[in-house]
Structures are given as C-alpha cells and as structure tokens.
UniProtKB/TrEMBL annotation:
Protein name per UniProt: Enoyl-CoA hydratase
Highest taxon of source: Bacteria
GO molecular function term, any single one: enoyl-CoA hydratase activity
Pfam families: ECH_1
Native species: Mycobacterium noviomagense
Protein family per UniProt: Belongs to the enoyl-CoA hydratase/isomerase family.
Annotated SUPFAM superfamilies: ClpP/crotonase
The reaction(s) this protein catalyses: a (3S)-3-hydroxyacyl-CoA = a (2E)-enoyl-CoA + H2O; a 4-saturated-(3S)-3-hydroxyacyl-CoA = a (3E)-enoyl-CoA + H2O
Function: Could possibly oxidize fatty acids using specific components.
Sorted UniProt keywords: Fatty acid metabolism, Lipid metabolism
GO biological process: fatty acid beta-oxidation
Coiled-coil parts of chain: none
Length: 241
C-alpha cells in the first residue's frame, strides 16, 4: 500500500509493502497515481519507503512475471515512467528519503526526485542488467543528467551498486545522514523547503526566461510574507542579544 500523510504543507508518500521489500507491482502503481492526485497543492513532497531495509527494491518480480508479451511489458514501463515523470514534474520540491536500499526501479524512483536524502547505511544501484534488462522508467536518462553520460553508462551498464558515501561523492545522492538522525533529518529538511518559496526556485532552475524569473521574484517581493520576514530580520539586526 501507499500511505499519504500531510504535515504543515508537506505531503509524505510512503510505499509500505514489507513482504516485498517495498517493490512495485501494478497495484502499487495505481496507489501511487492516487497518492500523487491527493498530494496536489502540497508545498513540498517526500517519497519514502516503510521500514529501514528498502526504499524501493525495484519492480515486484513475482507480481510482474505474468507480463510475457512486448506489448504488456511496454505498457507497464510506460505507466511507471509516467508516474516518475509526475514526480519529476511536481510543481513543488520533491525529496526522495532513502530509508533503505534503492535498487533497480527503486533507483529510478529516487532520481525522479529533485533531492535525495539517504541514511548512511543504504545502497543504491541501477542493477537491472542482472536480470538482462535495462532501466525503463526514465531512470537512465535522469541518471545521465545527474552524473554525466559516461558515468551513467558505466553504472547502469555494469549494474554497480554504490554505498551512500560513494553515491554522494559522484552527485547521485545529495545529503547523507547517520541512521540515528535520518527520520528527523529528512523531515526537517522537507519542512524547511515547504515553508519557503522553494517551489518558485524549482520552477526557475527548471528553465524559464529571464523575464519569467524576474516576474517570480517580483511577485514574492510584494507579498506580505516578504515584508513580514524583512521586518523580523530588521528587528533582530537592530536589537542584537
């Protein structure tokens, strides 16, 4: 199942399939679609897995083994790719909280997010080649955009699985937290993004014209929230403790 939680403008989607290490089946896809519908309007979005063993362990091989024709395989890949596209295109910041290993399709879900926060004991890898297949949910293209074409081909082509520190070193993971601080850490980060104009910043860095970027700034400048914040900053600077 996919749980949806709302917390101070933050929507948290949790894939909770402990019997399958949070692997994705067709029913999971349907639940993810509904969860994304429910999350519309959130100021930030987190996707994570239940427990501490797996973020998403890929596609559920047992459940998906009935797909034997090219047409059925293509339909499944297209559906999940559309879900990952929705994550990537969500208007507000999207954080993948890697509570456990992100392997195969799980790594594809992770790179659909804007930011990846990982517990320090997790592993991540595009290891679909172990099954003699390839990433099909948009992950290969997103991986190349993150770390470069050559490194992406090397990792996905060899099926190399990285630990959190190495993934952070090459830019695949953005933040690594000690396991003991992980839950508090990702939630604090996500709340900070939800409570600031990060959605406008995401829109600008995703690619808009200079005029659109300036218009976004101007809208924020005249908003009450800006003047209230400016007043707080002014008071602190004139009344230091």
């Amino acid at each position: 199942m996919v749980d949806v939680e709302f917390d101070q403008g933050l929507a948290v989607l949790t894939i909770d399939r402990p019997h399958a290490r949070n692997a994705i089946a067709l029913e999971t896809m349907e639940q993810l679609e509904k969860a994304l519908d429910a999350a519309e309007g959130a100021s930030a979005l987190v996707i994570t897995g239940a427990g501490d063993r797996a973020f998403v362990s890929g596609g559920d091989l047992k459940e998906l083994s009935s797909l034997r024709s090219e047409a059925d395989a293509a339909a499944m890949a297209r559906r999940m790719r559309t879900i990952c596209d929705r994550l990537a295109g969500f208007p507000a910041p999207v954080i993948a909280a890697l509570n456990g290993h992100a392997l195969g399709g799980g790594a594809e879900v992770a790179v659909a997010a804007d930011i990846r926060v990982a517990a320090d004991d997790i592993k991540i890898g595009f290891n679909q080649v172990a099954l003699e297949i390839m990433p099909a949910w948009g992950g290969a293209e997103r991986l190349a955009a993150l770390i470069g074409r050559g490194k992406a081909l090397l990792l996905a082509g060899s099926g190399t699985v990285l630990d959190a520190a190495e993934a952070a070193r090459i830019g695949l993971v953005d933040v690594v937290l000690p396991r003991s601080l992980f839950d508090e850490g990702w939630r604090s980060l996500a709340r900070s993004l939800a409570n600031r104009p990060a959605a406008e910043i995401k829109r600008v860095i995703s690619g808009v014209s200079a005029d659109e970027a300036i218009a976004s700034f101007a809208r924020l400048w005249v908003a009450d929230a800006h003047w209230q914040a400016a007043e707080r900053v002014t008071k602190r600077s004139t009344n230091p403790r």
